C-alpha cells in the first residue's frame, strides 16, 4: 500500500523504523469460525504491522490445541450455528485464562459468533444454551423461526477514542443484550447492531472489543486497526511503550469512504435504522 | 402470449434482456402454468443446481442433447428463478399456449439453489444434477448448512421417479445419495496431479454429518476432493463418470475420462479445473438421459463457452476473455486457471454490489487473492466497489496500477495497457459481467446477450 493509483504522483511511503518491535497474536479457531471473511482482519493486521516495521507472531489455536502462555492480541471470527456448537464447551473452558488476559489489558477482537461466545451464554433458536467465555457481560438469544436475521450495512460511531466512524456488514440471528458490567463498542447510526432495539453495537471491556461487524472490519477501518496494534504494543512493551505515529492508509481510507457512501445510500432506500436509545458515556 | 409479448416490449425499451419479466407476468396470470408445462416436453425435464457452474453445465448439456437429436428448451442467460424457467416456455409457446415441438424436446433448467426445493416437485425432473455447494451470498442464502438441509428434505419428500446426478467429490453433494429414492449417477476427478498441495481457505463442508472432521486423501478445490470420515466410515465412492487424466492450460483443458467404463478424451476450450467439473457433470447428466459416450465426447469438444463464462472477444490486435467470479470458491478457481501458465497477466477486475452480486462484499477476503502476487500481474480495478477490491488486492501484494469506477473507461484503460497480440483477462461479478460484456460487444461487434441462447 505505497502508491495511490488515482493519483500516481503520490510518492511511495518510506517504512518508519519499528526498532525491532513485535506483537504476539493468538488466532482462535480460525479453521472453524471462518464463515464470513473475518480472516481479512488478520490479513490487514499483518500488512499494516509490516508498514510500521512491527513483527507479528501468529499462533493459531484450534480444537484441542493449548493456548500459548502469553498473548498481546486475540482474534476470533464468526461461524455457523453448527460450528459454534463444536467449539463452545472448549472455549468456555478457556474462559478463566481469557478473562485474566482481558484484566491484564490484552487487546481482543471478537466478531459475530466469536463475540457471542465471548459473552455469558448464547441460546440458539431451539432453546439450547451454549456457555460463553464470559469476557463480556453480555447475553445472546436467537429468537425462533419467523424472526428476521439482522442483515445489512452498518454505520456506527465508535466509543473507542480515535477509532472514529466504523463501517461494516452484519448478518446475525442472535440478539445480544449488554449487562451492567458491559460498555457498548459503538452507537449505531444505520443498521441493527446488538439487537435492533437499544442502538448499541458490540461490547467493550478494557482493551477487549466484541462486535457484529464483518466487512472485513479491520481492512477498511484503519483507525481501529491502528488502535488495536497500539494496544497490543502497550501490552507487549509496558508503560514506556512509544505511541504509534499513524501512517497514511491510502487504499483503506478510500475503501472506508466508499463503504460509508454505500451504507448511507442504502439506508435511505430501506427503512430507517433503529434510533439510539443509549446514553453515550 | 402476454408473457412473451412483455419480453419483446422490455427488449424494445432497451432495459436489458427482459429474460425474467415474461415469466413473472405468466406466473402471475397462471400460477399453475409451471406444473402444466413441466409435463409437456417429450423427453422430460432435467434440472441443474449448485453454487458454481450452473449456466456452463446447462449450456454443455444442451449441446450434447442437440447432438443426440433432441431439442433443448432452456432458460437463457442465467435467469434461474421460477420466472426464468417459465420464460423459457413462454418464449416458445404458440397462440394456443402449446409447445409446437414438445415431443422432440427436453427441458434443461438451471435452478437457483434456494429456489430448487420449491420448483422440484413442480418441475418433476427425471434427472436432477447437483454440482457443488460453496459459501455464496450469505446475505441472501443464509448459511451453507441450511441449503444442504433443504435439499435433503426435498429429496426425501419427492414423489416422482428421478435419477440424481451428484458430484462424488463434494461431500455436501455426495451425501445427498442417502436421501435418494432412485438411481444415482456420480462424477468426479481421479487425478492427483491436479490436486492442491494445501487446502483453500474457502472450504465449507469440512465436517461430516456424524460430527467428525473429514480426512482428505486429495483436495481438488475448496472442500472438494477424495474425502472420507474416519469416525463413521462414510467416504467418497468411485464415480460413474471419472476424469482419469487432466491437463490444464490457461486456454483450455484436455480430459481423459471414462463414462460408465467407456474411455473418451475431450479437448475443451474451457480453462480451469472448475470447468472440468462442469464438463464431467454435463457428461454424467447426458449419460443419465441415456445418451451414448461417443456422442457426449464429440459434443463436449465442439461446445463453446456459455454467456459471459470464458467468452472471448477480438478487439483490434488484442483479445479479451471474460471470466465470471461471484464467490470465494469461484474466484479462487479463476485465479488458479489464470496462473496455470508463466506468462505475465493483464487483468481487469470488477466488483459490483447489486442484489445479484451480493450486497455484501466481505467475500473477497475469503478468496486467496494472494495467489496472484509475484505472478507479473498488471491490474486495473473497477466496478461499484472498485475501492474495496483495490484494497483487497493491495493487501494481497497485488497493487493495482489504476482504479476506475466507470466500466467503459476502465475497459479502455486496461486494453490500452494490454500489449498488441496479448490477451486481457476480465474477472467480474455478475452485474459487472453484464456491463462489461456489453462494452466488449460494442468494441468487438458481437450480439447482445438476449440473442445468445444456450
What does this structure look like?
- The complex is a heterodimer of chains A (281) and B (454).
- Chain A has 281 residues and is an alpha/beta fold.
- Chain A has a single domain, classed as Rossmann fold.
- Chain A is built from six helices and 14 strands.
- In chain A, the strands form three sheets. Chain A has a six-stranded mixed beta sheet with strand order 2-1-3-4-14-13. A four-stranded mixed beta sheet of chain A has the order 6-5-7-10. A four-stranded antiparallel beta sheet of chain A has the order 9-8-11-12, covered by helices on one side.
- In chain A, a hairpin with a 2-residue loop joins strand 13 and strand 14.
- Chain A starts with 21 loop residues before the first strand and ends in a 12-residue tail after the last helix.
- Chain B has 454 residues and is an alpha/beta fold.
- Chain B has two domains: 218 residues, UDP-N-acetylmuramoyl-L-alanine:D-glutamate ligase, CATH 3.40.1190; 141 residues, Protein-Tyrosine Phosphatase, Chain A (Alpha-Beta Complex).
- Helix content of chain B is 34%, strand content 22%.
- In chain B, strands 2-3-1-4-5-6-9-10-11 form a nine-stranded mixed beta sheet, with helices on both faces. In chain B, strands 12-13-17-14-15-16 form a six-stranded mixed beta sheet, with helices on both faces. Chain B has a two-stranded antiparallel sheet with strand order 7-8.
- The longest helix of chain B is centred in the middle third of the chain and has 16 residues.
- Chain B is globular.
- The N terminus and C terminus of chain B are likely disordered.
Amino acid at each position: 500500500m505505497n502508491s495511490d493509483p488515482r493519483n500516481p504522483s503520490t510518492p511511495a511511503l518510506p517504512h518508519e523504523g519499528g526498532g525491532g518491535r513485535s506483537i504476539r497474536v493468538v488466532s482462535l479457531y480460525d479453521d472453524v469460525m471462518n464463515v464470513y471473511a473475518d480472516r481479512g482482519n488478520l490479513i490487514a493486521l499483518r500488512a499494516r504491522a509490516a508498514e510500521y516495521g512491527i513483527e507479528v507472531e501468529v499462533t493459531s489455536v484450534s480444537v484441542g490445541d493449548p493456548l500459548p502462555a502469553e498473548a498481546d492480541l486475540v482474534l476470533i471470527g464468526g461461524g455457523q450455528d453448527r460450528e459454534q456448537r463444536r467449539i463452545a464447551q472448549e472455549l468456555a473452558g478457556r474462559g478463566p485464562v481469557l478473562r485474566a488476559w482481558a484484566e491484564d489489558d490484552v487487546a481482543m477482537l471478537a466478531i459475530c459468533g466469536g463475540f457471542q461466545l465471548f459473552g455469558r451464554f448464547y441460546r440458539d433458536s431451539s432453546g439450547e444454551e451454549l456457555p460463553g467465555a464470559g469476557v463480556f457481560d453480555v447475553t445472546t438469544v436467537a429468537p425462533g423461526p419467523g424472526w428476521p436475521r439482522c442483515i445489512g450495512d452498518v454505520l456506527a460511531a465508535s466509543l473507542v477514542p480515535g477509532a472514529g466512524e466504523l463501517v461494516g456488514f452484519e448478518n446475525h440471528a442472535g440478539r445480544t443484550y449488554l449487562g451492567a458490567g458491559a460498555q457498548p463498542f459503538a452507537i449505531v447510526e444505520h443498521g441493527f447492531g446488538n439487537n435492533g432495539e437499544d442502538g448499541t453495537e458490540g461490547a467493550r471491556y478494557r482493551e477487549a472489543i466484541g462486535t457484529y461487524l464483518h466487512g472485513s472490519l479491520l481492512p477498511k477501518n484503519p483507525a481501529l486497526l491502528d488502535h488495536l496494534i497500539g494496544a497490543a504494543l502497550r501490552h507487549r512493551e509496558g508503560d514506556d511503550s512509544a505511541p504509534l505515529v499513524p501512517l497514511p492508509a491510502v487504499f483503506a481510507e478510500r475503501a472506508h469512504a466508499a463503504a460509508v457512501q454505500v451504507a448511507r445510500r442504502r439506508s435511505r432506500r430501506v427503512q430507517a435504522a433503529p434510533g439510539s436509545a443509549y446514553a453515550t458515556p | 402470449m402476454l408473457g412473451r409479448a412483455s419480453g419483446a416490449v422490455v427488449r424494445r425499451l432497451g432495459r436489458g434482456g427482459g429474460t425474467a419479466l415474461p415469466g413473472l407476468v405468466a406466473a402471475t396470470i397462471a400460477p399453475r402454468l409451471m406444473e402444466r408445462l413441466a409435463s409437456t416436453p417429450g423427453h422430460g425435464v432435467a434440472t441443474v443446481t449448485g453454487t458454481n457452474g450452473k449456466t456452463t453445465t446447462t449450456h454443455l448439456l444442451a449441446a450434447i442433447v442437440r447432438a443426440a437429436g433432441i431439442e433443448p428448451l432452456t432458460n437463457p442467460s442465467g435467469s434461474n428463478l421460477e420466472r426464468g424457467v417459465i420464460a423459457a416456455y413462454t418464449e416458445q409457446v404458440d397462440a394456443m399456449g402449446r409447445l409446437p415441438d414438445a415431443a422432440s424436446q427436453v427441458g434443461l433448467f438451471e435452478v437457483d439453489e434456494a429456489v430448487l426445493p420449491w420448483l422440484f416437485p413442480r418441475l418433476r425432473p427425471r434427472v436432477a444434477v447437483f454440482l457443488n455447494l460453496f459459501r455464496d451470498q450469505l446475505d441472501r442464502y443464509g448459511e451453507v448448512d441450511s441449503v444442504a438441509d433443504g435439499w435433503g428434505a426435498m429429496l426425501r419428500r419427492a414423489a416422482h421417479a428421478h435419477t440424481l446426478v451428484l458430484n462424488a467429490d463434494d461431500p455436501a453433494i455426495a451425501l445427498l445419495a442417502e436421501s435418494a429414492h432412485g438411481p444415482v449417477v456420480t462424477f468426479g476427478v481421479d487425478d492427483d496431479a491436479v490436486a492442491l498441495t494445501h487446502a483453500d481457505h474457502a472450504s465449507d463442508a469440512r465436517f461430516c454429518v456424524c460430527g467428525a472432521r473429514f480426512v482428505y486423501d486429495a483436495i481438488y478445490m475448496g472442500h472438494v476432493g477424495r474425502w472420507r470420515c474416519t469416525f463413521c466410515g462414510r467416504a467418497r465412492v468411485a464415480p460413474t463418470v471419472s476424469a482419469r487424466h487432466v491437463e490444464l492450460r490457461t486456454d483450455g483443458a484436455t480430459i481423459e475420462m471414462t463414462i460408465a467404463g467407456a474411455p473418451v478424451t475431450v479437448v475443451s476450450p474451457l480453462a480451469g479445473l472448475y470447468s472440468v467439473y462442469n464438463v464431467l457433470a454435463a457428461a454424467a447428466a447426458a449419460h443419465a438421459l441415456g445418451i451414448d459416450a461417443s456422442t457426449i465426447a464429440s459434443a463436449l469438444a465442439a461446445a463453446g463457452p456459455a454467456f459471459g463464462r470464458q467468452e472471448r472477444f477480438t478487439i483490434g490486435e488484442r483479445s479479451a476473455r471474460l471470466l465470471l467470479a461471484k464467490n470465494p470458491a469461484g474466484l479462487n478457481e479463476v485465479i488458479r486457471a489464470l496462473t496455470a501458465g508463466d506468462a505475465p497477466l493483464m487483468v481487469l477486475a470488477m466488483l459490483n454490489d447489486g442484489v445479484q452480486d451480493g450486497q455484501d462484499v466481505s467475500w473477497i477476503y475469503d478468496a486467496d487473492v494472494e495467489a496472484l502476487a509475484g505472478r507479473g500481474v498488471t491490474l486495473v480495478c473497477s466496478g461499484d466497489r472498485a475501492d474495496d477490491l483495490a484494497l483487497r488486492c493491495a493487501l494481497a501484494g497485488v497493487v493495482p496500477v489504476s482504479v476506475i469506477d466507470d466500466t467503459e473507461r476502465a475497459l479502455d484503460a486496461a486494453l490500452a495497457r494490454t500489449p498488441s497480440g496479448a490477451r486481457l483477462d476480465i474477472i467480474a461479478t455478475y452485474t459487472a459481467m453484464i456491463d462489461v460484456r456489453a462494452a466488449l460487444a460494442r468494441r468487438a461487434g458481437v450480439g447482445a446477450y438476449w440473442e445468445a441462447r444456450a
